[in-house]
Amino acid sequence: MSPMSPSAAGRTTSEARARLLGTATKIFYAEGIHSVGIDRITAEARVTRATLYRHFTGKEDLVLAYLDQADQGIRGQVAAAVGSTPSAVGQVRAVARSIVDGIRSPGFRGCAFLNAVAEYPDPAHPVHQAVLAHRQWFLDTVTELLARAGDDDVPVDAAGRHLVMLRDGAMAAGCLFDPELVSETFLHGVEGVLREVSAAAPEEG
Fold this sequence. Notes:
mainly alpha, Arc Repressor Mutant, subunit A, Tetracycline Repressor, domain 2, 2 domains, 9 helices, disordered C terminus
């Protein structure tokens, strides 16, 4: 039998890693992190433990990869929302709508980052640190968007924190109560934040 070509080996390696990460993502998000062991992940991904350890140093490394993938997904979601309209106010509303799209989606189980940090309460733990880094990015991003949407002389730091807290509440409530009602309440709250930063925020159809 001829040896596997480097390109074929690379595809196999990439496929195995993607399968592991995809499986872990599905289970971690749906069922939690601590309740899921390596054996369950390797069995459902149809790989050996040795294959897992070729790609990840252990479960913690896999959890960090899961959160990094979630972070990149949310960054892409926000970028797409911001790019969908030139209006600064419209960009804030578009980001808010992208959040409620997630809340309304099948299988929604809340915020992956809030779920993860509940299982890793130690502030020094790498998983906790990854959650904090993601949340700081999101706070910085929405605060900057609100600054563009608001009046120059209106401070926006508190408004940014307000929007993040509204989002956190909506993400928590969205998997416990009627997602349509939660989404409507969240969007109403975002309009209140926009009024905080600019009483003249234009309406959009």
